[in-house]
């Protein structure tokens, strides 16, 4: 699919990998809706790229439906959906005081990363399936954002790894399910990237993490993620695939 002129949805588009993807799609001519819970940052990114900010909670059906309707009213029906919003946590199953890890923490990560992604995807797909087919019968494309933690989860990452593993597991059946509607589904599983969350870590810690990556021995750049996301849109034969973007990194247990 050609990106130029298409309407695109980017969840988590106000910062990090989502922001980079929103900016890259806009650079390539897409009409971008920045979906995020952070209204201030969403407005800033949208203003910079000539898009629209749609504040929403992806775990809430009504909030997400309203955001998609707002985007469609401004840009027309979307054919591109980039699911990049997500959260992380690190909790040992048995805490230092001997108590069990809080169930609420596990539930929240699963709800945002896995259920939230499914929520956006189902609403996007239902509308996209109504559109006129393009070349090869394609109507749209959606992206999930997993993580290398889906495969190499570290100590304390049970919730995060489970949520990202769920996205990996959902990729192929979603692609098969939506094939009849001409909607492709792919997933990127990024490694260690230079995001706002990563930059909050002490510099020595960042350098140590970067050194663990075989090549290139540095943190990934958000624009590299964005470039791959854009390529997935334009390469029509990419479907049902999970792509690791990690510099050959394999995470250690801790």
TrEMBL record:
SUPFAM superfamilies: NAD(P)-binding Rossmann-fold domains (SSF51735)
Keywords: Oxidoreductase
Database matches in InterPro entries: NAD(P)-bd_dom_sf, Sc_DH/Rdtase_CS, SDR_fam
Coiled-coil region: none
UniProt record similarity statement: Belongs to the short-chain dehydrogenases/reductases (SDR) family.
Database matches in PANTHER family: 17-BETA-HYDROXYSTEROID DEHYDROGENASE 14-RELATED, SHORT-CHAIN DEHYDROGENASE/REDUCTASE
Name the UniProt record assigns to this protein: SDR family NAD(P)-dependent oxidoreductase
Organism (species): Ramlibacter albus
């Amino acid at each position: 699919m050609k990106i130029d002129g298409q309407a695109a949805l980017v969840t988590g588009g106000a910062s990090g990998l989502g922001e980079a993807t929103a900016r890259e799609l806009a650079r390539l001519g897409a009409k971008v809706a920045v979906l995020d819970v952070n209204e201030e940052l969403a407005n800033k990114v949208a203003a910079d790229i000539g898009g629209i900010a749609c504040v929403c909670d992806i775990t809430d059906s009504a909030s997400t439906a309203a955001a998609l309707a707002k985007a469609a009213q401004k840009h027309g029906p979307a054919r591109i959906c980039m699911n990049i919003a997500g959260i992380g946590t690190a909790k040992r199953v048995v805490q230092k005081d001997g108590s069990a890890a809080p169930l609420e923490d596990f539930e929240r990560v699963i709800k945002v990363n896995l259920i939230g992604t499914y929520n956006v995807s189902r609403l996007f797909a239902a509308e996209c399936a109504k559109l006129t087919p393009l070349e090869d019968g394609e109507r749209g494309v959606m992206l999930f954002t997993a993580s290398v933690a889906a495969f190499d989860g570290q100590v304390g990452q049970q919730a995060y790894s489970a949520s990202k593993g769920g996205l990996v597991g959902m990729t192929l059946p979603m692609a098969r399910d939506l094939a009849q509607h001409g909607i492709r589904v792919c997933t990127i599983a990024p490694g260690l990237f230079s995001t706002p969350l990563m930059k909050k870590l002490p510099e020595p810690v960042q350098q140590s993490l970067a050194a663990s990556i075989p090549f290139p021995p540095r943190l990934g750049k958000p624009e590299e993620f964005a470039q791959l996301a854009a390529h997935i849109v334009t390469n029509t034969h990419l479907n049902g695939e999970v792509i690791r973007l990690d510099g050959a990194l394999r995470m250690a247990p801790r």
